[in-house]
Amino acid sequence: EKEKKYMLQVDNLKLRDVEKGFMSSKHIFALFNTEQRNVYKDYRQLELACETQEDIDAWKASFLRAGVYPERVTSDGGDENGSDNIMHSMDPQLERQVETIRNLVDSYMAIVNKTVRDLMPKTIMHLMINNTKEFINADLLAQLYSCGDQNTLMEESQEQAMHRDEMLRMYHALREALSIIGDISTSTISTAMPPPVDDSWLQVQRGGSGG
């Protein structure tokens, strides 16, 4: 800053977003001159990359304070320099103030949107948990204490006892089936197949009788 080695003229400078590459994870935007002049030395535009979107927003806010505004794109695809005759017909100072207010409002609404999106789930969970705690303390706990003997509340229900007995019966039946299968596999003796029947003598006898 003391040597002013890399000072840039902010006159006619604009910002535009650059699409990320296929293998790149960085957020990129570019500085360019609206009068088709070089921004710095032989560079027609300077591309700046950041790791996160928050860094991008901080850089854009800094450029905004320096008087470098984002490029506005119209509905037909052209930029503001080609078709926005109304803005060029206004006072340049008024146009600069309008652009500053427009960008500040956009930045403020982006911050509000992000804040609401961050706080909404936390608020919902906070209210749900508090309501549940109040219900347990006020209604559920009172009903439990009004039942009389609290020891009966810890007893096993009849349905659960029947379910447990059914599981035990099935367990013992499966154990018995496995033991039977094991006895069959160890006591079974396999025998070889008998040899095939030799019927060649029948062929000889038929040939002799026919002759």
Question: Describe it for me?
Answer:
There is one protein chain. By secondary structure, the chain is an alpha+beta fold. Strands 3-2-1-4 form a 4-stranded mixed beta sheet. The radius of gyration is 44 Å and the shape is flat. The protein is built from 6 helices and 4 strands, in the order βββαβααααα. Mean pLDDT is 79; it is low at 82-89. It starts with 12 loop residues before the first strand and ends with a helix.
Provide a quick synopsis of the model.
The chain has 211 residues and is an alpha+beta fold.
Strand order of the largest sheet: 3-2-1-4
User: Nearest-angstrom radius of gyration?
Assistant: 44 Å
Strand composition percent? 5-15%
What percent of the residues sit in helical stretches (DSSP H or I)?
55-70%
**Largest sheet, strands/sense/barrel:** 4 strands, mixed
Order of helices and strands: EEEHEHHHHH
Count of individual helical segments: 6
The strand count comes to: 4
Distance between the termini: 128 Å
Tell me, rounded to a whole number, the average pLDDT: 79
Sequence stretches where pLDDT stays below 50 over 5 or more residues: 82-89
Helix/sheet category? alpha+beta
Question: What characteristic shape results from the CA principal axes?
Answer: flat
